[in-house]
Amino acid sequence: MKITELINKNTEVKNILEGIKREENKSIKKHCQYCAEDYKEELQLQLIELSEKYPTYQEQLKNLARELNQVEDQGEGWKEADELTLNPLPLSEIGKYPINVYCDTDIFPTLLINLQVPSCPLSETECQQVKHPHYVLRDHEITIDNESRKIKIGEAIIQERRGASADNPDSRGTQALKLLHKLVPEFTAVHPSTDKKLFQELSRYKNPPRFEVLQEGTFENVCYIDIKSCYANIMRDYPLPCGRPEHLKDPQLIEQNLQEGKGGFVKFYLENYALIKNNQIPFIPTRDYSYEGGKIKPALKGKKRLLLHTQKKGCANKYLDHCDQLKEKKETEKEAVSQLALLKTYYLYRQFLPDKILTIRSDCILVKETTELPPEIEKNNHLYKIKLFKRLKLNKELEIFDCETDTLLKSPKSAKIKTTITGKKQLVERIAHSLSKKRIKLAKSDIEQVIEELLLETKKSLIKGEEVRLLGYFSFKTTITKPRIAMNLQTKKPMKVPAKQVPKCKFAVGLKKEVAKK
Q: Which residues form a coiled coil (predicted)?
């Protein structure tokens, strides 16, 4: 699309009104002359509405509406892009008018290059001959704001929009957020770039989103990235794990890529089970706690095939359509929050190789053997709470242990629970201090010996296949395979514990009694 097309197709009626107020009737007629054929009828109606709203300019607006009937579509007659002249409105006069121009992500980078002199390989004479934009606009004040993606040329503003239109300047991602805000008022309607509270913990819901553990075991030099604290722009370009995004349209090619385990976007609609390999990206979180074997429970009904979808705009469109369906069915809060988990497919983990990803959770990403962060993450390092751990352990229960400090960092039951498994030295000190209050004097070596015996029993239980999990200073639980006799510490009476039942005991009190008996 040429710059002339951008300007002519995005001239807004409010600018026409502003032009009339400034008595720039001649320039206004020039703008109207170059409206494309598709915009004439709509613009005529808007001009008539404005004439009724503003009686002072009623006659002028009606005259403009009548003149549009006699205007031919001159879109095909425009000159080539390298000449870049508007006739009768030359490019050099664009900055004189308050024109708002919206362009897409393909056009905007080209404009940035063409409007900056240092990036032009041609000499000044050559630029003059081909009439490059930066030469034609050399007398205008040009301001480039790369952060907000705006180019200001005099009074004219050129702005990049993602999936925007003249009727709706909001991008599709912003529309999705605003619609989500209507469904779930607790979520913000503003763009994530200005509101970091958008992605909050969803633990108060019955079925919070659950994410796949890609790898299990103990790993060294692990990078921990806190997702909740990061700048999560959900409608940004989502690059594939090892390259640039690719838009696949052929259904057979999509199916083939999916079977080969290649990554990309996944449609929001699922009906049948989908088998996701451990090293395959992307993934889809499941709300079902019976998650097993890499199978993904259906998130929605209505579609039967899982397809690869790498186009961000299509992804937002699907979500908007789905929100409309939810609104019609009056299934608002729970379903909308559930689908938000799909929308929260973070772009961060795609900056790493798939085999380096240890786990992807709703609150963090773990990457192993990371000595140097990717440029995209390093550039925004101040936005993430990134930590480096020497040794971390991951298990199938979706728990994350810091082996160096014996700390349970994360648990799937609640993000707020932080349980510490006390080391042997700290445990000896704690028990010795507790016994001293009871005036029971025992050497620390004796206490340590009892603890060693307890740990030995624990190891034996693990060897037998019994699960032993320490939850903290004061309690532990174990899954047993045979009936046993245990002491009820509340009633102080023996009780028979059936197999597979999980008894809870006061760990510190029980251990203190063992030490006292000795």
A: 3-81, 316-343
Distance of CA 289 to the CA centre of its chain: 23
Which residues neighbour 229 within 8 Å (Cβ) at sequence distance 6 or greater? 196, 383, 384, 385
In sequence order, the 6+-apart residues with CB closer than 8 A to the CB of 462 are: 468
Query: Would you say residue 60 has pLDDT above 50?
Result: yes
User: Which helix (H) or strand (E) is 135 found in, with range?
Assistant: helix 133-136
Nearest to 511 by CA among 419, 446, 463: 446
Written as six digits, the tokens of 114 are 């063409």
Structure-block tokens of residue 430: 């704690």
* Whole-number Å distance between alpha carbons of 268 and 314: 10
Distance, in Å, from the CA atom of 448 to the CA atom of 329, rounded to the nearest integer, reads 63
Residue with tokens 């390999």: 277
Residue given tokens 């016994």 in the structure block: 435
Confidence of residue 165 (pLDDT cuts 50, 70, 90): low
Beta-ladder partners of 387: 224
| Cα 129 from Cα 144, distance rounded (Å) | 25
- pLDDT tens-digit profile of 385-405? 678 888 888 876 667 888 887
Q: Which amino acid is at 74?
A: Q
The letter for the amino acid at 6 is L
CA distance from start to end of the chain = 87
Max intra-chain CA distance, the chain? 107
- Helix locations, 184-311, DSSP H: 251-259
The Cα–Cα gap between 447 and 425 comes to: 10
Q: How confident is the model at residue 394, as a pLDDT?
A: 82
208 token code pair = 């919070």
Is residue 126 within a helix (H) or strand (E), and if so which, with residue range? Answer: helix 124-130
* CA-closest candidate to residue 96, choices 5, 8, 11, 19: 19
Asked if 85 and 54 touch (Cβ cutoff 8 Å), the reply is: no
Torsion angles phi and psi, residue 83, rounded to 5 = -80, -35
By CB atoms closer than 10 A (0-12, 13-18, 19+), residue 381 is exposed
194-227 pLDDT, tens digit each: 333 333 332 233 333 334 455 788 888 888 876 5
Burial 107-116 (b: 16+ CB within 10 A, else e): bbeebbebbe
For residue 366, the cross-strand partners are: 224, 359
> Model confidence at 256, in pLDDT bands (50, 70, 90)?
low
- Enter the tokens of residue 272: 């049948």
Instruction: Quick: pLDDT tens for 431-467.
Output: 677 767 666 666 777 777 766 666 666 656 555 555 4
> To 10 degrees, what angle do helices 424-437 and 444-463 make?
130
